[in-house]
Write the structure tokens for this entry.
Amino acid sequence: MPLFFTVFIAFSPSCNIEGNLYGNVPQTIIVAGKIDNYDPNYRLSLHLERIGFSQEDILAKTDSVGNFIAIFDSYIPLDAWMSYRTNFLVLLHPGDSLYVQFDGKYDDRPKLLETIRFGGNTAKTNQYAAKFQQMYYANYHSDWDEEIKRRKEYEPDQYLRYRDNIRQTHINLYNQFVAENQLDDESRKWASLFIEKDYYANLVQKMR
């Protein structure tokens, strides 16, 4: 058995700590998995987004056939951008062990997300989160140059109306997603906050 999976299994019993409310002691998080059609010219990294804490980038240890592992500590739940040829978000909690497998031949985010599979503590939640990201990015084709141009040229009220229209499109997409899937509570709330974060992040950039 590869070292990656030995470590992954060894830590699994510690993932469900009864009564754990995260507290002031950081707990280990393990993200392990396999990149199918692995290309060693690309590196797998995780960008950790901890609310109220500093951001952090971690380079996963990867073997010659695409098995990988990353181990780190956290006090709080977090989102992590997994980056290879493209990137996607996974949801993590202190004490989690998450297994992630995807096809590394794609640099198109929606296509990669169609191939992703999870195992471990938050497999169900992450599968729903990946499905929503796939749906979101397949329907939202952002022209970054055009976005920057509108941000610079539009008056504040005009830009707000422009972003409000995009936001409503995302809300409609979210409502469709909820109606078509039997979501758990965490993935439902996460998807709602995911579209709001995009909306407010753009408004903040306009005000700078």
About this structure: The chain has six helices and nine strands.
